[in-house]
Amino acid sequence: MAAILGIDIGTSSAKVMLLDAKTGEQWVQAQAYDVSTPQTGWAEQNPELWWQAVRNCLALLKAQHGKVYRETACIGLSGQMHGLVLADGDCVPVRPAILWNDQRSGEECELLRRLIPEDLQRRCLKNRIFPGFALPSLLWVQRHEPEIFARAKWVMQPKDYVRSRLTGCVGAEVSDASASLLFDLEKRDWAWEILERCGVSDRLFPECHESWEIQGTVSKECASLTGLPETAQVIYGMGDQQAQSIGNGVLHEGTFICNIGTGGQISSYSEKPVSDSQLRTQTFCHGLPGAYTVYGAVLNAGMSLKWLKDQVLRETDFRQMSGMAQQVPPGSEGLIFLPYLTGERTPHMNPDARGIFFGLHLTHGREHMARAVMEGVTFALRESMEILEAMGLPCERILSSGGGASSPVWLQIQADIFRREVQVCQVKEQACLGACMLAGTAVGIYGDISEAARSLVTFAPEVYRPDQEHVERYRRQYEKYREIYRRVKKLFP
């Protein structure tokens, strides 16, 4: 018997899946942690939080499923993308990690736009320069914290740091590296020309590998701390979007994934490194050989509902919010929400954008606000979907994942606004599952990734189909949603 571990380092929690490769049985443990906001617009986490959370999850899995746990043959990793981890020569972080939703590096982005011509951005990076990506965050540290920057030996992404705690080795891999603005997507290597233009030393960047390659085995120190066998092989892993794609069984073009977590994304598998002509979307290397993932990203998806729950309505759980939304007809009786609470990426690429409730009336209550937030987030994601389709990526159906997939009312909203059938993978932690699948394939437990998908990926029997009356209502409301931004965008700064 062989077991596989899949570790996902999210923005709000770490999750670990223990998979019995023979029976397909899965057990998941999770531990939440907070995002630190020491100043307005900042978003940080101490990397040690991630490792401690992983250790706690491993301890629970070991206590509950010790026999399977001790037979762990391989470990896969997934993690939140774009973040910047700076570590010294002993792999000890020199400062808190700067996360994907951090907005402090606006001036550094302006500098980078002058240093990197747009044709080079399109040809090499295939992504727009924007706050929260690792490169502008790195320049911010270099400029504002020179003493800390001087202590840095390595640039890593979040899951790379956790992998270093597992193996004692430093390394990078293509999917996360391509989400840093430091990477040449077509060459699948660090963008040395851009680093030189920015005056950033190439010594900071570890050798880059493909996601499925094996970095090494569990270190003696880690084995002592966690009880994992030293023989367990650890692959380089991948970003969470790529892992979710694999965990949803999306291994070819034709299916879009709608992920509503803290942020939100509409993503597609792509055989080529296609990019939007206006650089409104993101194109990154996939965790699979020679493939790419293309997606549009909104900054405040589940975060918008969490804000409404915690800061406005003071409710205790999301199930209650979903029940409230169910009481209101589609369209929220004219109430429209723009979910730009901390700026927006796709399609506006505007860090100054802010949230709006439009059309408030005396008849509106908390139930209308809950549904309007769900609808507004889905409108934002529809804009991403339309851009991907215009790029030639086909969408025959949509798989929903993340917190938005746990609410039947939100799933029906997605079907009506996207005008597509929506399904849900029965395994809720698709990123963990994708990490397990790639690791199991890498060490030969599965013959290839398709075999792993046939063995492990199943879908809930419910299919959410568009209601044509709702589709037409949302079509009119979507046009108004888009017009609101056009009318007010000059006021945001």
From TrEMBL:
Name of the protein described by the UniProt record: Xylulose kinase
Q: Give the Enzyme Commission number.
A: 2.7.1.17
Source species of the chain: Candidatus Fusicatenibacter intestinigallinarum
Q: Where would I find the Carbohydrate kinase FGGY C-terminal domain in this sequence?
A: 258-442
> What Pfam families does the record tag this protein with?
FGGY_C, FGGY_N
Return the HAMAP family for the record.
XylB (MF_02220)
Q: Where is the Carbohydrate kinase FGGY N-terminal domain?
A: 4-247
Site residues, Important for activity: D8
